[in-house]
Design a protein that fits this description.
Largest sheet: none
Number of helices: 24
Helix content: over 70%
Structural class: mainly alpha
Number of strands: 0
Shape: globular
Order of helices and strands: HHHHHHHHHHHHHHHHHHHHHHHH
Length: 537
C-alpha cells in the first residue's frame, strides 16, 4: 500500500514547467555538449595524426596510425569514461550529486586543454601524452553521465520528466555537430593560409608544418563550453530527493526547493523519518531484496546500453572509413593533410545535421507521449532493418550512382539510434532505481554501454579491414570486410530489441512510485512483482 508522499517531492512532481527546469537542462546539457565534442572529435583528427607522425615519404600513400596506436587513441577516452561512470556514479550517491558535479567539470576542462599539449614532438611522446590526458578526460566525462541524468530526473516533474532528461542527452548531438563545425572552420582557415599540394604531387610539401596546430586547436576548444557553465553548476542547490531520502535532511530539502519553486514548503521531518526507516528503503545494491525488486531491470538497462553502444560507437568513430570505402571522401594521396581534415569534417557535419541532431529532438518531443519502451523497441528494430539493407547488397552501394542513396540509408541508422535506444538507455536508469542507489545504478548501466563502445571501437577497427591482404590499411591483418561488419552490427541491434523486453515503462509515474520508496513494506513485494515491462496505457 502506498504511503503519502513527502510534500516537497510531490511539489516537484506536479510543478508546472518553469524557468528553473530550462536552467537545469542548459547547465547539465552543456556538460553533455562537452562530453560528445571531446569523445567524438578524435575521429576528425586521427588521419591527420597519422600523416604528421607516421608518414614515410618513400611510400605512395600518406601515413596512417599503426593499429596499436589507432586502437589506443580511439579507445583510451572510452576506458576512462567507463571507470569514471562507475566511480562518480557511486560517489554521487555517497557525497551528493552537486559536490561531485563540480569535480567532474574541472577535470573535463583541464584535460581538454592538456590533451592538445605534448611533452615532445616525437611520435611516441605525442601519442603517450595524448592518451594519458584523454584517459583522465574520459574519467571526468564518465562522471557526467550518471550525475547529469540523476540531477535532471530528480528536478523534473513527472509529466515531462522524460523530455527533460532526453533534452540534456540531446546536447550530445550538438556536441558532435559542434566538433564538425570547429574542425571545418579551423581546417578551412589553415588550408587557405598555408596552401599545400596534394600528396601525389609533392609528398613532403603536402604536409604544411602548421598542420600540427590544427588537431591541437580542435581538441582544446572542447574546454570552452564546460568552463562557461562551472559557475552555474556550483550555484545549483542539491536535489531535494538526495537531501531528503539519502541525506535525511527534511528541513534543508524544503528550504532549497522553496527557493527553486518559489512556494512555501513544510519540512515534514516525522514523515521523512518514517519513510526512510522502512525496510524497503534500506536495502543495498548487493542484497537479495535489490536482486528481487530491481535485478531484471538492471540487467535490462545494462544489456541494452551495452549492445547499443557496440553499434553506435562503431558507426560514429569510423564514419570516415566508411565514407572513404564508398568514395565519398577522395583517396588520401589526392589531398593535402589539412584538406583531408576538411573533407572528413564536412561529411560528419552533414550526417550530424541531417540525422543525428534531429533524431535526439524527435525523442525529446515524443518520449512522454509514446513512452520509453516503444521508442527503444522501434529504434532497435529500424537500426536492424537499415543495417541489413546496407550490408546485404553492399556492392550495390559502392557503385558511384548509388553513393548518395548509401549516405541516406546510413543516416537513417543514426536517426533511429537517436530517436531510439541511444536516448532511452540514458533516460530509464535515472528513473527506475531508488534515490540512494540511483546514481550508482545509472553509472553501472552507462559503464556497460562504454564496455560495448570499447568493443565497437576496437573490434570494428580490425573487423572492417578488407579480406584482400593488398587492400588492408598498413599494419593491419585481414578482416571480415565492411559488408560482414555491418551484418554483425545488424545482429547486435536485433539482440538489443530482445533485451528491451526487460526494461519497464516509466512514463507518467513519480520516481517514488517507480522505485517503491513510498510503499508500505507489505506492498513492496506486490508492487515489484507487478511491474510491467510493456507500455502502460
Amino acid at each position: 500500500m502506498a504511503k503519502e508522499q513527502l510534500g516537497v517531492l510531490n511539489a516537484l512532481d506536479v510543478a508546472k514547467t518553469q524557468l528553473y527546469h530550462f536552467t537545469a537542462i542548459v547547465i547539465a546539457g552543456m556538460g553533455f555538449f562537452t562530453d560528445a565534442y571531446d569523445l567524438f572529435c578524435i575521429s576528425l583528427v586521427t588521419k591527420l595524426l597519422g600523416r604528421i607522425y607516421y608518414t614515410d615519404l618513400n611510400q605512395p600513400k600518406p601515413g596512417t596510425l599503426p593499429p596499436n596506436v589507432a586502437a589506443a587513441v580511439n579507445a583510451v577516452a572510452l576506458c576512462g569514461t567507463l571507470a569514471g561512470q562507475l566511480f562518480f556514479g557511486w560517489l554521487g550517491d555517497k557525497m551528493g550529486r552537486k559536490k561531485v558535479y563540480g569535480i567532474t567539470l574541472v577535470l573535463m576542462v583541464l584535460c581538454s586543454v592538456a590533451s592538445g599539449l605534448s611533452f615532445s614532438d616525437h611520435p611516441k611522446g605525442v601519442i603517450t601524452t595524448l592518451c594519458f590526458f584523454r584517459f583522465w578526460l574520459g574519467f571526468g566525462i564518465g562522471g557526467d553521465y550518471p550525475l547529469s541524468a540523476t540531477i535532471m530526473s530528480e528536478y523534473a516533474n513527472k509529466k515531462t520528466r522524460g523530455a527533460f532528461i532526453a533534452a540534456v542527452f540531446a546536447m550530445q548531438g550538438f556536441g558532435i555537430l559542434g566538433g564538425g563545425i570547429v574542425a571545418l572552420i579551423v581546417s578551412t582557415a589553415f588550408d587557405h593560409s598555408f596552401k599545400a599540394p596534394a600528396y601525389s604531387v609533392d609528398r613532403a610539401a603536402s604536409l604544411a608544418p602548421q598542420a600540427d596546430f590544427v588537431w591541437r586547436i580542435i581538441l582544446m576548444v572542447g574546454a570552452l563550453p564546460a568552463a562557461l557553465t562551472y559557475y552555474w553548476r556550483m550555484k545549483m542547490p542539491e536535489t531535494a530527493r538526495y537531501t531528503a531520502l539519502v541525506a535525511k535532511n527534511a528541513k534543508q530539502a524544503a528550504s532549497d526547493m522553496s527557493k527553486v519553486l518559489q512556494v512555501d514548503l513544510e519540512a515534514e521531518e516525522e514523515k521523512l523519518e518514517k519513510i526512510t526507516q522502512e525496510k524497503s528503503n534500506t536495502f543495498g545494491l548487493f542484497t537479495k531484496q535489490f536482486a528481487r525488486r530491481h535485478g531484471l531491470h538492471l540487467l535490462g538497462t545494462t544489456s541494452t546500453w551495452f549492445l547499443l553502444d557496440i553499434a553506435f560507437y562503431s558507426q560514429n568513430l569510423f564514419q570516415k572509413d566508411i565514407f572513404s570505402a564508398i568514395g565519398w571522401i577522395p583517396k588520401a594521396e589526392s589531398m593535402n593533410a589539412i584538406h583531408e581534415v576538411y573533407r572528413i569534417a564536412r561529411a560528419q557535419t552533414l550526417i550530424a545535421m541531417c540525422s543525428t541532431v534531429p533524431g535526439y529532438w524527435f525523442t525529446v518531443f515524443f518520449i512522454d507521449y509514446l513512452g520509453r519502451f516503444a521508442i527503444q523497441l522501434m529504434g532497435f528494430f529500424f537500426m536492424t532493418v537499415f543495417m541489413f539493407a546496407l550490408a546485404i547488397p553492399y556492392h550495390h552501394w559502392t557503385l558511384k550512382p548509388n553513393r548518395i542513396a548509401f549516405i541516406v540509408m546510413y543516416s537513417f541508422t543514426f536517426f533511429f539510434a537517436n530517436f531510439g535506444p541511444n536516448a532511452t538507455t540514458f533516460v530509464v536508469p535515472a528513473e527506475i532505481f531508488p534515490a540512494r542507489l540511483r546514481s550508482t545504478c545509472h553509472g553501472i548501466s552507462a559503464a556497460a554501454g562504454k564496455a560495448g563502445a570499447i568493443i565497437g571501437a576496437l573490434g570494428f577497427l580490425y573487423a572492417a579491414q578488407s579480406k584482400d591482404p593488398t587492400k588492408t590499411d598498413a599494419g593491419y591483418p585481414t578482416g571480415i570486410g565492411v559488408k560482414n561488419s555491418l551484418i554483425m552490427l545488424g545482429v547486435i541491434n536485433f539482440f538489443g530489441m530482445l533485451f528491451t523486453l526487460l526494461v519497464p515503462e516509466s512514463k507518467g509515474k513519480s520516481l517514488e512510485e517507480l522505485t517503491g520508496e513510498n510503499e508500505e513494506e507489505e506492498g513492496t513485494e506486490l508492487q515489484a512483482s507487478s511491474t510491467r515491462t510493456v507500455p502502460v496505457g
